[in-house]
Write a structure and sequence with these properties.
Blueprint lengths: L1 H21 L3 E5 L3 H7 L4 E5 H23 L1 H28 L5 H9 L1
Antiparallel strand pairs: 1-2
């Protein structure tokens, strides 16, 4: 299984490197279109290779997806945590009831009573 994972990662690396080598031409990214930049006064632009833009977009999309999913699953994690605390409380209560039930009895008889 480990070798399959290494083979997959190697193939992915080859594909990403070939994609990067094939798309090295520079592109200009602008914050707003040129027509609006004069009106708004925002003339921010940057020139990057195309593969940086593509791979950066994929990375930003993955990060946004992970954050969105983490926020969406918050209620499930909260419920699991609450139920875990409830289980601990109920176990503690059961142990207290067992101790109260076997109070004053011989320890061997209490152990045999618990086993049956």
């Amino acid at each position: 299984m480990r070798y399959i994972r290494y083979a997959f990662l190697a193939a992915l690396g080859v594909v990403l490197i070939s994609l990067s080598m094939a798309n090295r031409e520079a592109v200009t990214l602008r914050l707003v279109p040129e027509e609006l930049s004069g009106l708004l006064g925002l003339n921010w632009s940057i020139t990057l290779p195309l593969f940086v833009v593509v791979l950066g977009g994929i990375a930003v999309g993955l990060i946004l997806g992970f954050v969105w999913e983490w926020l969406r699953e918050h209620k499930h994690r909260r419920d699991a945590s609450r139920k875990s605390r409830e289980v601990v409380q109920l176990k503690r209560e059961v142990n207290q009831l067992k101790d109260h039930k076997h109070k004053g009895k011989d320890e061997v008889l209490a152990i045999l009573d618990e086993a049956s």
